[in-house]
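Researcher: We're teaching a course module on how sequence relates to structure. For the next exercise, students receive a sequence and then see the predicted structure as tokens, so they can try to spot secondary structure elements on their own. Here is the exercise chain.
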Amino acid sequence: MAKRILFSVCVLIAAAGCPVVSLQPLYNSTEELVFKPELVGRWAGDDAGLEYMEFSQDSSKMYTMTLHEKDNEIRFAVGMVEVKGRLFLDLLPEEPKGDSAMWLQQMHEFWSIDLNKDTLAVKRMSGDWTGDRSEKGRLWVRHEIIDDKTILTAKPDRLKRFVRKWVDDPDAFAEAFTLHRVPSPPDDAKPSQQ
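Model: And here is the predicted structure for the students to work with:
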């Protein structure tokens, strides 16, 4: 898979710290994806820079996630995968538009999610946890450490096995943020796209 310059997800939600990213997705093909229609809609939390995030259906099993910040809008292609009975979102940022200087490279990030009616709890793999395991020679998946950031380089099948092994470890997947469903404005209140 070609590496294209784009954006690191390090500043996605500041309170959560720097996430672990991957060169490869958490799935081999879209046939492995699951789709939960209840994820579609607007979600907001307490992050001061994030107005809301919105999930829409992109294709039969893919989503588009748009982060709406005060002066910026960032889009991600999102696939949902089930690993050991848990739902994971595989996020890949799209090409930058506008003032998106905070993003550095296009890489995948994996979120473990708990979707419960109008609450979306997100856990991200801890960069501190992976960095510590790497320093001790105990991060048993292909990876690189660049500027103190862990970049996973393994193939999708190996990534799934790695995630499956550590999904229940509270140090590996730390609580990052919780979002709540917010109503979308009526269609006539949305600005027209001309």
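Model: If you want an answer key for the exercise: The CA atoms of residues 16 and 176 lie 5 Å apart. Helices lie at 127-135, 156-166.
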